[in-house]
Amino acid sequence: MRFDTAQLLKRFFFCERSLLVSMAAWIPSIASLEIKIEMARFTWQSSETANSLRERVFELRFPNRLLEEEGSDHSLVGLIGSVRDSPSVPALLSAVGHVFLPALRDAYRDYLDASDAIADGPTHRFLSVALTEKREQVDAFQKWAATSLTQHAALRESTAVWTHDLSERLVAIGGIGVGPASQVDVTTPKTNTYAIPDRPARDPRFWPCRFYWPDIVDSTFPYGEGLRLQLRSAISHLNEVWAIEVGGIILSSFAEVLPWEWIRNSARWTYDESRHCRMGYERLMAWNLDPAEIPLGTYIYDSASGKIYYDADGTGAGAKILFAQVDPGQVLANTDFTIVGSAAPALAAAKDIPASPSLADFIWTSDDADTWLLREHSSSTHNVPWFWFGD
Ligand SMILES: [Fe+2]
Q1: 243 C-alpha to center of ligand 1: Å?
Q2: Which of 62, 65, 79, 377 is the most buried if burial means most Cβ atoms within 10 Å?
C-alpha cells in the first residue's frame, strides 16, 4: 500500500508540475488583468501542492531518483503538457478549465475518499487544501473561457475542437485517477507550437502609454508627496504587471533544464509580483478612478527584439512606426545618434537625450511639420541606417 500511495502521489506531482508550467507560459498572452493576476496565484498554488506531494513521496521512502522522471505516467504527463501548445487563449483556458483541472480535482477527491485519514494523515492535510483550491480554479477557468469566447467568437469552433480532442485523449489514457498507470500511449493533437509572445497582451480598459508617471517625460515633475505619493505608488504597483509576465516566462523557459526548486521559487516570485500589481489595482479602484485614465506601460521598445519605434503623439494613442532594427539586447547611447534637418537642433535640445538612454528615449514627438532626420552617429558600431520623419 505504501508503494501504491507513493506512486499515486508521484503521478499527481508530475501532473501539477506539467499544468503549472503551461499556465505560467501563457500569462503574458492574457490581456485581462484579472485573469493574468489570478493565473499567477493559481500557478503558485499548484507549485505548493506539487511541493507537498514531492516531499510526501520522499517521506514514504520512495527512491529519490524515481522522482526525476515520470516513469509509467509518461504518456499522461506528456498529454497534460501539450496544453502549452494551445492554439489560442480561449483554447488554453477551456482545455485547462474543462479537461485537466477537473481531472486533477476528481483524482484528489477520490484519493481522499479511498485513503485512510489516520495512516495517511499528512497527505490528507495538504490534499484537502488542494482540493478546495482545485474547485476554485475550475470555476475560474471555466468562467474565463466563456468570457474570452464571447470576445473572440471566431475562435469558438477551434476552441471546442481542441478541448474535445484533449478530453478524448485523456479518457483513452484512463484519466488521472487513482488506478494503475495506463499502458495506452496517445498522440497529442498538435496544431500549434508554443512561442514566447513578442510583446505581452495588455488589458484594453487601461490607458496604454510608455510611462506610468510624468517624470519619465518631464524630469521636473515632482515625485510626489502625501496623496500624490500614494497615487504614484499605486500606479507603480499596478505597472508591475510586466514582472508577473517575466516571472511566468522565466519559470516556463527553464522548467525543463533546472531543478524543481527553480519552478517552485519562480512560481512564488510570479505570485508575489501579481500581489504587488493587485495592491495597486485595488487601491486605484477604491479611489473610483476610471481605468481609461490609468497609465499602463506598454513595450514601445522591446529590448528582446531590438526594434525601435517612432511614435508621433508620444503616448501610444496613435500608431507607432517601426523604423529601426538593431541587434537584440543592444545597448545604445545618445552618442550613437545624430539628428540633422531643419527642425533637428531644437528637437534635439528639447529632447535632451540622456547619456545612457533607453531606446524609449528615441521616440520623439514632433509638433511641427518640418522634416528631420535621425541617423546613426559615425562612431557607432550599430548597423542603423538613416531615417526620415515628417512631411
Ligand atoms: Fe514587485
Answers
A1: 7
A2: 79
- The 8-class DSSP code of residue 320 comes to E
Go through the chain and tell me how many residues it has.
391
* C-alpha of residue 272 to centroid of ligand 1, in Å: 7
Radius of gyration of the chain (CA): 25
CA–CA separation, 42 and 26 (whole Å): 13
Q: For the chain, first and last CA: distance in Å?
A: 80
Instruction: Compute, in angstroms, the gap from residue 36 CA to the centroid of ligand 1.
Output: 15
Rounded to whole angstroms, how far apart are CA atoms 209 and 296? 6
How many angstroms does the Cα of residue 176 sit away from the middle of ligand 1?
A: 36
For cell 475542437, name the residue.
Answer: 161
Residue numbers of the chain with a pLDDT score lower than 50: 1-2, 300-301, 340-352, 359, 363-391
274 CA → ligand 1 middle, Å:
8
Instruction: Output the CA 275–ligand 1 centroid distance in Å.
Output: 8
Q: What's the 260 CA to ligand 1 centre distance in angstroms?
A: 23
Closest alpha carbon to 164 in 88, 90, 104, 98: 98
- The interaxial angle of helices 2-26 and 33-59, nearest 10 deg, is 160
What pLDDT score was predicted for residue 52?
98
